[in-house]
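Researcher: Next sequence.
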Amino acid sequence: MPAGCKNNGTCSSGGCSKLEVFDWLGNMELPGNVAPFEYVEIRFKNGRKEFFKNGTSVFLNPGDAVVVEASPGIDVGIISASGELARLQMETKRAMKHLRDLRKVTRKATTEDLEKWRTARAREEETMFQSRTIAIALGLEMKISDVEYQADNSKAIFYYTADGRVDFRELIKKLAEKFRVRIEMKQIGARQEAGRLGGIGSCGRELCCSTWLTDFRSVSTSAARYQQLSLNTQKLAGQCGKLKCCLNYELDSYLDALSKFPKNYNKLKTQKGLATHLKTDIFRGIIWYLYEEEGGATSPVALHKDRVAEILEMNREDKLPFDLKAFAETEEPREKETYGNVVGQDSLTRFDETRKKSKGRNKRRKKKPARPAGTKPTTASKNKSEKPGGKPKSQGGPRKGKRPKPKAKRQNPDNSNKGNAN
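Model: Next structure:
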């Protein structure tokens, strides 16, 4: 059972293993006479990662639990990257300048070390709730979101968020007396808090900040404007209450496409009137305009961005086109895409079709009740098809809309004068 969310490792982040690393250099061998890189990346609780020097003579593989130096005492972590991948990570994080300040890995963790580590982790949740109670009693405007104990139970790190500066000197005294450990307070932002706690986003997947995102860039409302998104704070805000980080993912593509559009294309002058910009399809390069004088009585006119540039050039030369329809973009009919059932998926309405077929069969199987032997049909059964106020079908007059053809009298030339003779 994992010690984190106790989901048995079914989520994409592996339960308590956040910010996992795929070792894409694991199958590559080093050239001859080249020593492996002596620094490793170690992950602690909730994605906290640090670099350490391998002080052992054994090569450490990702996933190994090791004992490292801490201040004070020792701590237990898990190797997340080693070898050349750790070198690339250190170059990305610019940690090569501080190699002298890095602490060492003393040994691989034993069973006793892991038992002490689990005991320390079991105290974290209760400690967090009690520390919140103490902070509220002292009237401090802060939120303690997470607590991390060191593996030897000698130190505890309290992560908190606050809008401004907080004087927590009295709080540290209270916490030290209560839990009998060394206290360290760390202030984090709202995005870092969401990354440590994790959660599910509006897209249905785990939060980017808790699974793979490590650097938090500033997000502004202009990113939503460029992508033509509605400025609704409830839809644009993430779990942290700030603007979603994913608004920056496709922003460069939108800016690149918008750079090819003409400038100041909101108004177009024509002899028919002034046309106002209605909407834009950025990647197709089509702009829709609507005449102001007609008040939206006509349908919008779609123009390509190159045609809009031509009209703007005419307006600068004090030339007015008669109508925008002469420049309108003719959209070719798109072919209807048909998707085949490649993987053999069942239809959602397959049971409804079988139900309809079975109902039709049951109707055909229903027959009239059999008449007992030796009995004659009654008048009611004879006139069953007779409608109230009308004639029975047996006597049946002509069908509606059709006239009966007159029967022609047959004449016999031999017997035509028999009556006169008699």
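Model: The CA atoms of residues 68 and 105 lie 4 Å apart. Confidence is low (pLDDT under 50) at residues 9-15, 384-397, 415-422.
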